[in-house]
TrEMBL record:
It holds the Pfam family TrwC. NCBIfam families: MobF. Residues 21-313 form the TrwC relaxase domain. It comes from the Bacteria. Keywords: Coiled coil. The keyword Coiled coil applies. This is TrwC relaxase. It comes from Pseudoscardovia radai. CDD domains: DEXSc_RecD-like (cd17933).
Amino acid sequence: MGAKPADNAGAGSMNSTDGYAAYLARHEGGTAAKAVRGMAEYYGQAHIVSVSPGAAPVDLGQADAKAIRSILEWNDPETGESRGRIGRNGRPFYEITTNWPKDFDVASLVNPDLASEYARLHNEGNRNVLGYLSGRMYSQVWKDGAIHSCGAGRFDAVCTTHGTSRDGDPELHTHIAIPNRVWCEGKWRSIDSSRLIALNWALQAMHDAKGVCDPSWRRVLASHGLTVRVDENGVASIPELERAADFMSKRRKAIKEEEERLTRRWCKEHPGQEPDYAMRRTLNQMAWARTRKAKDKTGEKAAPDRDRWWRELNDAGIDLSGFVQPRDVPGDAVRDIAERPATDEEKAVIVARAVRALQSERSAWSEWDVDRQLWIEISRSGLCGDSGHLYSLHAQAKRVAMRSMVRLSDQAKAAAPWVRSVTTRHVIDTETELTGILAVRGAGENTPEAMGESVEGLDPGQAEAAAQICGTAALTVVQGAAGAGKTTMLAACRRELDARGRRLLILTPSGKAAKVAARETGAEAWTVHKLLAAHGLTCDDLGTWTDGDLHEPRPGSMYALSVDDVIVVDEAGMLDQETALRLLRLADRYGCKVALVGDERQLSAVGRGGVLGIAARHARSVVEMTQIHRFHDPEWARVTLGIRDCKDPAAMASRLTGGKDVADAAGGHAVWLGEDGEVVDYLARAWADDPGLLITCTTNRQADLVNETIQRERMEAGSLGADWIGCAGDGAVHAGDRIQTRLNDASLGVANRETWTVTDVRADGITATGDDGRSVRLPAGYVSEWVRLAYAVTTYGAQGATANASIHWADGSRADAADVYVGLTRGRADNRLVLTAADQAQARDTLRQILSQSRADLGVAHASRELEESLPSLPEYDLPCILGTDGEILVEGKPGQSLRQLVEENKMGLARASLCGCDLSGMDLSGADLREADLSESNLYQADLKWAVLDGATMRGADLGDSRLERAHLCEADLGDATMRGADMRGVCLDRADMSDADMSDADLSGASLRGSALDGATMRGVDVTDADFLRARMSGTDLTGACLWVQGHRYPVEASDFDRAYADEAILGEKFDTPAMEQGQQIETPGI
């Protein structure tokens, strides 16, 4: 699920391209009015929901297409009153599409019970999404001479649910269209889109957690022999249905590809026209029919057809009948935290994994990033619970996680939940130690080596770099532009060091790069991780290192280090800080020289980077290589230097988009096409013309589209074998395919990112030949997990690679300057860039934006500087908070949150909170930590305080009428003058509490402990204190009229209690005070204390 703005291109969801919205999104000429008309027609019928912070979403009833259009045109759904006017190119609405993994849809086919439970899960998920957005929507408001990010109040949503995809496959999903109007600061205003987009990943993770952790859904699945598996991103799958889900997904993919092909053909046959909605449906039905393998009649999008889907699965040899009948479920199959709360250890694991994951990704993150990762770890924890319990668990975990973090700035703006201003002490300490080691090494002696014949043929920059690497400096930094001949320079270093009896060790980020380095330089080359592992240093999937296992390699091992070794880290810009720190510690231990060779302007580390830049700032031995050798065209070499050191993005974008159309765009090295589908076709044709072409893409999604298209066209041309085997990414491999291995495996003879051509496909695996002529046999298990098609690769996979010609497809929303620079420097003879854009002006603007930004993480010091520089331009942020009784900020909230939300979401961390006079009625405060809190005069009517801890709290004059206080702890609490009429206080602990003059009429205090409490003057008319413990309680003047005081004397002593002058008219006193009736005002005489 995801959110995306509906601008002049219409609306579309980030994870789904269903519906008319996606069609509009692909046509830049679509106006806002067209987007509204199209969505209203596509929805047809929808529920209208009103959402306000602190309240449950309110269903305003159903609406037809006419009413939907009116609402999306910013009219009030109840009164029809206008909330503003949409400009021609304005954003009329945002769309979120909620759905679950295809495995869940297939599970709903198994049995009606599963279908019913799945529908319930989906509806609750939708309510959670709207509730989560409530209080997290913002608008920008000009006030007090500045722009403020203000929390929004009410907004409306148009919700329509479909049971199938447009391709007729099972897919329960809901389109939630949110008109671009929110109530904020006394009027209807536009939504701050950047905040909504920033919230998307946390919103998606929360929604995923609902599907994974819902106990009722998990029990029904378990009763049919189905289990749920969760990956590292919190995404669920059902292993038993993987094949069926894979079949449905591939079917849908084939239909979409055929529909896009038919649409492009229609547009060519009708120049200047676009297919309307009716024609789109016709084209979709044609695509459905052409790709259908079964023989029965095709149909248009209709109601879910379970029987047809069963037949399709059976025709494909997939039998689900074994899951139809329910079976007994073991009692421990589902861990429901409502029945057995999460332990402290389980909570600690959730927090620790979340923090470690955040630390492995970036140097600084936002509060919403924390929310996202905590939801992911809750999904992975194996714990289940209803929405309320999950929110409570998340709030507790977040409280602990945030306590372990530090802010990079104390300005209020930096506390906004979308600002990346949070880090941990570990991140800071790691960079501090890393910087210190580099500074010490960089400050040492620096005498370049006098090079002999080894440097013949090198340019001055290469020769200087070689001399520095072979010299006496403990740290050398060599930065070289793409094509500057770093590999040639390293070969010279190897020759020189060999002649002097020393060893050159080249360490690379990937196994493929290590093999290339060894082949082209003659030096020993491994991955960084392989050397560290040989010394006992390994890391897990979250980048946590086993520092305590450091040991010497076995005697005679090639991984043994000595003072004569020179360690060169190639592509050092991709080295993350955690790995770099371990490598430097190891080099210090053996006295090895370290040289970092790379380019800060190329792609950075996946995680916390900036190592090369930090080293360059502290080293005396620094060389810059700028003479380019790779390209046939000297002018292009000069252009690439301009891209690398881009000081004027607009001018460079104009230079690269110099052509007017596809035919002459090569002069500017950029091509622009109107749709992604056209880009994919263009790249497929280019590869067909030149199979040696290197195609690079910004994202895996782009690479997958290109790979699938080229593979399909090769299949149609008869260039691939008919037999196939499944590979990673839900793909398939045929004989003749170009593939890439993605995991180092010495036993198989393959390295990460090596490319191969498949020569044979069998059920148990494949045979493939590498670029170096080697042949390997890969088992089916490795292929299914670690083999991907490689007609196109990402720029991360291509950095360091070269070819005769290269084309880079830049994603306008994800690419940055480094991505384009790497993509445009892979080809020796030809380098081209392709963009999705309507015309030259848009292509130029998109490229300007790409060249203007960097997504690299360059360390926490750099993140702190960037934050400080950006703060003046950020909107003002008014931070709500809960103060402690001593005036300190106890809980920082979010604009738009009501106090009720702030209290409820942080209920586990409100010890000593100042909440006097607050309206907390009806709130869920079960299990809350309110020790020593000030709740004087507060309204807690009908509040749920089960298991809450209120020891020492001040609650004088508070209204606790009809509240639930079962098993709550109020030791030494001050409840004087409080109202607790009708409260459920069974088993409550009120030891030494002061309830003087409190009104507890009709309350249930059965089983309560009131040892040493003060009830002087309290009203307890009709109270039930069966089995309560009043040892040493003071009840002078207490009104016990109609009370039930049935006390087990031998277990709950009352003889020492002070009932002097207690009123007990018609009281049932039980065992020790068994009197049929007492006159009002009669004193109850008790033994002396």
